[in-house]
Amino acid sequence: MQLLEHAQNGVRLTVSTPEEDIRAAAAANDSLILEFEAFRDGRGFSLAAVLRGQGYRGSLIAAGKILPDQARHLRRCGFDAVELSPGADAAPWRRMDQVFSAAYQPASGDDRLVWRQRHAAPEDPATLAARLNAQWGDADAEDLLKAVLDPALARKAAAISSFGAEAAVLLHLISRVRPDLPVVFLETGQHFFQTLAYRRELTERLGLTDVREIKPGAAALSKADPRGDLWRSQPDTCCAVRKIQPLAQALTGFDTRITGRKRYQNSQRADLMPVEANEDVLTVNPLAKWSANQVEDWLLDHELPRHPLVEQGYPSIGCWPCTRAVAADEDARDGRWAGQDKTECGIHERMLVPAC
Amino acid sequence: MYRYDEFDAALVRERIAEFSDQVDRRSSGELTEDEFKPLRLMNGVYLQLHAYMARVAVPYGVMNGRQMRQLAHVARTYDKGYGHFTTRTNIQFNWPALQDLPAILTDLAEVEMHAIQTSGNCIRNVTTDVFAGVAADEIEDPRPWCEIIRQWSTIHPEFSFLPRKFKIAVIGAAKDRAAIRTHDVGLQIVRGEDGQTAFRVFVGGGQGRLPHIAQEIASAVPGRSLLAYLTAILRAYNLLGRRDNIHKARIKILVAAIGIDAFRDEVERQFAILRQEDLRIPDEELARIQAYFTPPPFETVPAISPSYDAARRLNPEFARFTRSNLRDHKQAGYGAIIVSLKPIGGVPGDITAAQMEVVADLAEKFAFNEVRASYEQNLVLPHVRLDDAHAVWSRLREAGLATANADLATDIIACPGLDYCSLANARSIPVAQALSRQLADAALLEKLGPVRINISGCINACGHHHVGHIGVLGVDRKGEEYYQITVGGSPDEQAALGEIVGRSLPADEVAPAIARALDRYLEIRHDGELFIDTVRRLGADPFRTAIYELTDAAA
Fold it and tell me: Does B153 lie at the interface with A, CB-CB under 8 angstroms?
């Protein structure tokens, strides 16, 4: 619904005008302004519903004494726009218009209806990903997240977080949308102690209620890496034992995985889409299109706690043996597996494969 | 009973987020109190005489043990350890702090409960027959239709700012146990010509200062058209109902003013131009909802229970309880037990947290995990095996919940009155308590048989005094609390408004006067004639004489 900051020209009738006069005016004009004289006077909602039900296709603008809390009532009854009173703050109007992800009862607006969704066949993941990218790919990350977590989609979602240098942004968004979303943290056994402390601090600060600490299987670990130094000789195998296998297990049953990956992080991620589909699994990267500056601004604006190693020159943080600080002229992820060909641990490639 | 799916749960969660946003904007001054008021009312938050009040919806009166326990938790954690059941089958908490309300709503959401539309000028909690799914005379269980209406009316974009509140009740039998003719819209399930579910529709009932009995507007609206028909009624009312005078804003005034035939024409005109196909309940959705209300897994047991009969023979107190508080069940060997919230000298409808937990226990152990709240402000355990009735009674008795008075003279319906309510002229509770003590004798009560006494503390009539067999209305006479008595009202399928018998009485004269009227009934009744039938046969005069006997003699 459009929010109009200036008074509109056109036929203006109060909601106390008799229904037949309103209908006559609608028949003769392709734009109508309905003026509410008191926000408690709900006649305007029925008048709009009557006009839309009768096939009126012109524009319908609400004006006068109305509250932001009535935005969705207006939209769903068939209004296209609201004339805001001078100096009104548009933010609560936008917020209140989008409070509900679905509605029970059919109305003139185009809301997704619970009664239809309950019995509709689910979209296949590729179509769904394409739709979500088209609809929300350029929207706020929070809106994308909301759209993905919409119960109408019935996706079983979990987020993955390293609780590293920039993790606070995604986790902050999650805490605003659904603080009880499962968040998987891979406790590889070789994290910096600062990361573990940061995980506790951030979890508590954001009020996340389902952060899951996933550890490698004891048997697999004692077999593959009995001395805890596999990273020296075979870093890929080390990642497999400490990250990839435990993650696959932790994500069993989840068909939607949310990550904090961003395009700017390295060249492999340069084409990253906000929503990716592979067979039945969606991978959602709400921050894909964010710039490093945007991330930094968000952290500052929301006064989010920083990973303690950031100020010591670690812009990307994994396990301690394979992470070092970077120099001013290096890329953020140059400190990961430095001196090797390896640039990714592999969880994100594997994540696209449906979990067994 | 109905269980939330992810859509229902999300909607309640989003409603709490919306309300929190509104509370924040009120705190910051962005919303004025005048703007905030209807928004908080639509979330069940009233400002009463001494504190805020939270009214929690019990949709069509159906709860499970877990929900009852959570209500006990709310009572104990945020209130003074008790709650009050209303005639709308909701529960009210009288002492919550405003800052606790989001926490209360969150705790309720955890057990699939909410306070949405328990107040305000919108469609309120739909009510039904407390014996739905129990009574042998019902042609179809009304609860699935109640759930459909609940969903359809929840956060309705068009009908959230009506001229005034709007109440709907649904029954599935010809016998009216939900007072549908006192509602804005009353629905009675009937069989249509095609043999399918249809609704006989009544419109324009209501109480308050200008009481009306609802009139029939349609004899058989097909089930699939129900929501379209309700939409047409509400649309006509929303457009034509008065908004200039709060006392004349209910649909009953509109219907009375233009006449039922003109109103029917208006509804039919709106109905004809509606996009009905949009409002047709999808078959699969109806089937989905109905599946939640299939009968519980009853055991096949004989209609006669020897242990139950033996307990009745051995224990006269238990026998009396079963005569008044146990109702027949359509399933052989089962009964429905009325849990009385009307102890002698108690506050009608009040229940402590500990008592709620007892009822929750009993529901889980003996009643397929179901409790109902009734129009009469009692609770009902709907499906109890007769074999278990004595065990249930013993637990209820220990908890003070086994007063043998269901539908008898001390089963008084009363509003909270001036003890709590900012609208009241007079107190209701002390009058109810005095009357309850006056009529406490169990043998007398049983001899009197079914008598419905209703008490309201003001003309808004929350105690439904207009339709009490005997009604008591609190009035303010130059700063003194006085009470006007009516006789002959009835909320059922023979609904009628009581007749005012004469001048109002001071508080301490009410109970003795009513006792005299009931004594007179015992003198003049025919054998087996119920109180209300004697009133219908002879009119109010004999009772008027009895009520004013002593006061006239003194004067």
Answer: yes
The domain covering B413-554 belongs, at the CATH homologous superfamily level, to Sulfite Reductase Hemoprotein, domain 1 (3.30.413.10)
Q: Given this chain, do its domains A2-115 and A125-351 carry the same CATH topology?
A: yes
Give the residue from A15, A20, A45 with the most B CB atoms within 10 Å of its CB, the best one to mutate. A45
CA A237 – CA A229 distance, rounded (Å): 11
Task: Give yes or no for B267 touching A (CB within 8 A).
Answer: no
Hey, where are the domains in chain A? 2-115, 125-351
- What is the distance between the alpha carbons of residues A257 and A264, in angstroms, rounded to a whole number? 20
* Structural element, H or E, at residue B230: helix B226-240
CB contact under 8 A, A119 and B284: yes
CA B408 to chain centre: 17
Any bridge partners for residue B500, and if so which? B486
Element spanning B320, H or E: helix B316-325
- For the record, the structure tokens of A304 come out as 């989010």
Cross-chain CB nearest to A69 (options B22, B152, B279): B22
**pLDDT string in tens for chain B (555-residue length):** 898 988 899 899 999 999 989 988 988 999 999 999 999 999 999 887 777 889 999 999 999 999 999 999 999 999 999 999 999 999 999 888 888 888 899 999 999 999 999 999 999 999 999 999 999 999 999 999 999 999 999 999 999 999 999 999 999 999 999 999 999 999 999 999 999 999 999 999 999 989 999 999 999 999 999 999 999 999 999 999 999 999 999 999 999 999 999 999 999 999 999 888 888 988 889 999 999 999 999 999 999 999 999 999 999 999 999 999 999 999 999 999 999 999 999 999 999 999 999 999 999 999 999 999 999 999 999 999 999 999 999 999 999 999 999 999 999 999 988 888 888 899 999 999 999 999 999 999 999 999 999 999 999 999 999 999 999 999 999 999 999 999 999 999 999 999 999 999 999 999 999 999 999 999 999 999 999 999 999 999 999 999 998 765 555
Name every residue whose Cβ is closer than 8 Å to that of residue B218 and which is 6 or more positions away in sequence.
B199, B200, B201, B229, B264
Q: Are B425 and B455 in contact (CB under 8 A)?
A: no
The top-level CATH class assigned to A2-115 is: alpha beta
Asked whether the whole model's pTM tops 0.80, one would answer no
Comparing alpha-carbon positions, the chain A residue that sits nearest to B160 is: A42
Which B residues in the span 336-395 are in contact with A, Cβ-Cβ below 8 Å? none
Q: Is B440 within 8 Å of chain A by CB?
A: no
We find that the CATH architecture of domain A125-351 is 3-Layer(aba) Sandwich (3.40)
Interface contact B9-A151, CB threshold 8 A:
yes
Tokens of B311: 């307990």
Per the annotation, the verdict on A356 as an active-site residue is no
Q: Is B285 on the interface with A (CB under 8 A)?
A: yes
